[in-house]
Amino acid sequence: MSTSPHLSLRLKKGADRRLRTGHLWVYSNEVDIAATPLKTMPVGSEVAVEDASGKFVAMATVNPASLICARLYSREKSRGLDQPLIVSRLQQALQFREACFAKPYYRAIFGDSDLLPGLVVDRFGDYLSAQLTTAAMDQRRDVVIAALDEVFSPKGIVFRNQGPFRQMEGLPEAVEVAAGDVPELVELEENGVRFLAPVMTGQKTGWFYDHRINRQQLQELSKDKTVLDVYSYVGGWGVQAAVAGAKAVTCVDVSGDALDLAQQNAELNQYSGQFSCLQGKANDIMKALIDAGQTFDVVVLDPPAFIKRKKDQRQGEKAYHQANQLALRLLAPGGILVSASCSMHLPLQTLMDVVKTAAAHRQRQLQVFSIGGQGPDHPIHPAIPETNYLKAIFARDIQN
Hints:
The protein is an alpha/beta fold. The protein folds into 3 domains: 8-74, Archaeosine Trna-guanine Transglycosylase, Chain: A, domain 4 (Roll), CATH 2.30.130; 83-182, Transcription Regulator spoIIAA; 187-398, Vaccinia Virus protein VP39 (Rossmann fold, 3-Layer(aba) Sandwich), CATH 3.40.50.150. It has helices at residues 17-20, 83-100, 135-139, 141-152, 164-168, 212-221, 236-243, 256-268, 282-291, 313-329, 348-361, and strands at 8-10, 25-27, 46-50, 56-62, 68-74, 105-110, 119-124, 127-132, 156-161, 174-180, 186-190, 193-197, 226-230, 248-253, 274-279, 296-301, 331-341, 365-372, 391-398. The longest helix has 18 residues, at 83-100. It is globular, with a radius of gyration of 23 Å.
């Protein structure tokens, strides 16, 4: 798709300031619609973003129906969002990932942070699981496939085109094999531990690479311990604790399929300790364990995003408080709580307050000894706070 020299998006006075400091999003209320009628612009088309005086700022793609009506992809005038540009960005991202990781299992592209808005790609060796989350990137589907093929030469590519971002862009949801063949389960390795990930049917792209470094830290703390992995999915935390020498591991998840795979992943790593799975809602299972008088040396709490939108803030914070209070009731004296959040709308300090309040409520003294974030394959764009979303608080119980 080439850019028409006449297609431009004029901003209101001062609306370019944020973009000149590195941000990549233009909101619909920042556009001078008298000068450039936004609503008439074709969805996904490439435009030259201009400041109020008509001076070039950057190239972007537009979606007039979205609150984020334009997403910048290049500061070079007349540059198209075409295969050569996508290939160049993929190559830069790959070079960095290969410098960080010895094996080809990582998030290969993290949208805005890799200057490819609307594209997320997870790599599982010879297979890629990707999401196209904007109309512009969705329109360039074939170009993206060709670029991924050129850079990664995968055996198969699956598009997991689901979720709220596609809904916001007015796009249909579907899971489809876009190239080659993709098995139901693909293998990956994280921190020396083998896993099978359900890329065709699982959550998001099938796996969550973002907690890699935090799970590595958990391994260092797990030897000879009893570990409870709440919201375990396919055992990302629990299986790594098991391989690191945990005495016993209990995984809790609402999905029976996910727990079956967690068990399979424990077996894949030849874990000979006690590995058990409990299916049901996390809070219900935790209450049942409390009623049974059970405690654990390590409790990992890694829930889904309780706060997906700002309007969920109050209810979401309440959910974090409830879960953390239950987790502390299951924590043995001198034990370790790992409290995580993937909610971008929950700042680290608020999560710290949640942990502090839960401890005070249970009359426990906690000592935070480590704070983790997302791994280097989920780089943070310094101008876009939304890319900095993951946190994990490691806290030790000090006996009164």
